[in-house]
Amino acid sequence: MNKGEGIKSFSLPKLRYDYNALSPYMSEEQLKLHHDKHHQAYVNGANAIFEKLDKARKDSVDIDAKAMMKELSFHIGGHMLHSAFWDCIAPAGKGGGKPGGAIADLLINEFGSFERFKKEFSMAATSVEGSGWAVLAMQECVSRPLIMQVEKHNVNVFPGFRILMDLDVWEHAYYVDYKNDRAKFVEGFWNVVNWDYVNKVCAMIK
Ligand code: MN
After folding, report:
1. What spacing in Å lies between the alpha carbon of 15 and ligand 1's midpoint?
2. Is the preceding omega at residue 24 within 30 degrees of 0, hence cis?
3. How many CB atoms within 10 Å of residue 80?
4. Total of domains in the chain
5. How far apart are the first and last CA of the chain?
6. Distance 201 CA to ligand 1 centre (A)
7. Ligand 1 mean position to 112 CA, how many Å?
8. Which of 86, 94, 145, 159 is the most exposed place for a label (fewest CB within 10 A)?
9. Confidence bin at 2 (pLDDT 50/70/90)
10. Rounded Cα–Cα distance for residues 46 and 83 (Å)
11. Domain assignment of residue 13, yes or no
């Protein structure tokens, strides 16, 4: 294989539902902006850094490693977390409620009850300082789920822990619909969370 041959770029995943499918919890305008503009920007950002890296290698010039790695971590983190997020939500009427199956067992075993998990996850989401995420991830080494409170897209991340579900609480995720009321957006999320998808991820881990 020639050097550089077969290299792929990051690309924006298509949503599995229409932009208006999550209304009233997420409006068409909000979802379209979020997916087409904000997520796309992280895809572009990651690809741009790889282009810079490729060029620097080709020209044998040094890179500003610290700045570049930091930026790359931010953009790739943004791309991966958003990609998971779109799968973690379902059209209004098809998601939400209490989970069943493996995820229900996992949550009850860890948190004592689904209600306790929901409370802890909501608290993690509403209290992120600035922009970030609440993420439910699996610590496969001890078979226990845990909640990560991610700042930006890449701070407080535990490496290698598989994402079961995540919730974007950047202001760009809700400003059209909820203005500054993050707590109300988080409340809305519980009506569209896609437990079927989360159960599929669970099944892949076990
Ligand atoms: Mn976002």
Report:
1. 14
2. yes
3. 18
4. 1
5. 36
6. 21
7. 30
8. 159
9. low
10. 14
11. no
pLDDT tens, residue by residue, 43-62: 999 999 999 999 999 999 99
Residue 5, domain member (yes or no): no
Q: What is the dihedral of CA 37, 42, 47, 52, to 10 degrees?
A: 110
Q: Please report whether residue 11 resides in a domain.
A: no
The two structure tokens encoding residue 133: 């995420």
Domain that holds residue 149: 26-206
The closest alpha carbon to 72, from 91, 53, 56, 95, belongs to: 53
146 Cα to the center of ligand 1, angstroms: 21
Q: Kindly give the distance from the C-alpha atom of residue 172 to the centroid of ligand 1, in angstroms, as a whole number.
A: 6
- Written as one string, the DSSP assignment of 65-94 is HHHHHHHHHHHHHHHHHHHHHHHHB--TTT
**pTM of the shown model:** 0.95
Residue 69 scores a pLDDT above 60: yes
- Contact present, 177 and 91 (Cβ < 8 Å): no
- In the reported structure, the alpha carbon of residue 149 is separated from the centroid of ligand 1 by a whole-number distance in angstroms of 15
- Flag whether 12 is in a domain: no
Give residue 137 CA to ligand 1 midpoint distance, Å.
18
Residue pLDDT, tens place only, 7-37: 789 999 999 999 999 999 999 999 999 999 9
Lookup: tokens for 179: 């203005």
Q: What is the three-class DSSP state of 62? A: coil
